[in-house]
């Protein structure tokens, strides 16, 4: 398991977060009539969780989990607006910016390098 310690935990966490956006956004298209889409969502979910686990081996769990969910929340909200035509209100934009500010703050003040 020494290979886990050689991977950049921040890059791993970003990729895990992007995969979370993929599977969370893909949930709208999961069905028995779309088995490949459903399988893709499951693969993205598993890969996201595995990469989150890898990142938590070197980052504080609270920081890693909050950043992972933050990337997923912001990304899913943006996909909802751009792809699914969900409302793009000023209040939603402010809330998304607050999540991004929290992610940046956690990264800056996590104590991990």
UniProtKB/TrEMBL annotation:
GO molecular function: transmembrane transporter activity
GO BP term, pick one: xenobiotic detoxification by transmembrane export across the plasma membrane
A GO CC annotation given for this chain: plasma membrane
Domain of life: Bacteria
A Pfam match: Multi_Drug_Res
Topology class, membrane: Multi-pass membrane protein
Main location as per UniProt: membrane
Sorted UniProt keywords: Cell membrane, Membrane, Transmembrane, Transmembrane helix, Transport
Transmembrane regions listed in the UniProt entry: 34-53, 65-84, 90-109
Subcellular compartments: Cell membrane
UniProt keyword Transmembrane helix present: yes
InterPro entries in alphabetical order: EmrE-like, Small_drug/metabolite_transptr, Small_multidrug_res
Family: Belongs to the drug/metabolite transporter (DMT) superfamily. Small multidrug resistance (SMR) (TC 2.A.7.1) family. Gdx/SugE subfamily.
Full protein name: Guanidinium exporter
